[in-house]
Amino acid sequence: MKNFKEISTRLEIAKKKIGISPEKDKGSNAASLGNALKISTELVAAVIVGSTIGFLLDNWFGTKPLLIIIFFFMGAAAGILNVFRSAKRMHKK
């Protein structure tokens, strides 16, 4: 038990030295999880929307696999761009 108290005391001293307060640290896990879910949802949604548009246009024009593939990659590129923009905004805060 002495080792545990010693470790927790050293940890608190180290946190004070680098400027992390225990209150600030508690909310960061939930915020980080929320940001991760937001980013992953944006990426998946962009790919699904792109693929759906490609599928609908393929059915309309009769060019079965071509437009699905093209719009899949366009959706993936748009999703990655959205992820970079969101990450940049989160980093500024």
How would you sum up this structure, described in words?
This protein is mainly α. It has one domain (2-92). Helix content is 92%, strand content 0%. The protein contains 3 helices and no strands. It has helices at residues 2-18, 22-61, 64-92.
Task: Considering the chains and any ligands shown, give keywords for the structure.
3 helices; 0% strand; 93 residues; mainly alpha
Low-confidence stretches: none
Q: Gap between N and C termini, in Å?
A: 40 Å
Tell me the domain tally: 1
Order of secondary-structure elements: HHH
Mean pLDDT: 88
Helix content: over 70%
Structural class: mainly alpha
Number of helices: 3
Overall geometric form: rod-shaped
Strand segment tally: 0
Instruction: Name the beta content range.
Output: under 5%
Largest β sheet strand count, sense and barrel closure: none
Which radius of gyration do the C-alpha atoms yield?
A: 23 Å
Kindly summarize this structure in a few lines.
With 93 residues, the protein is mainly alpha-helical.
Layout of strands and helices, then pairs:
Blueprint: H1 2-18, H2 22-61, H3 64-92
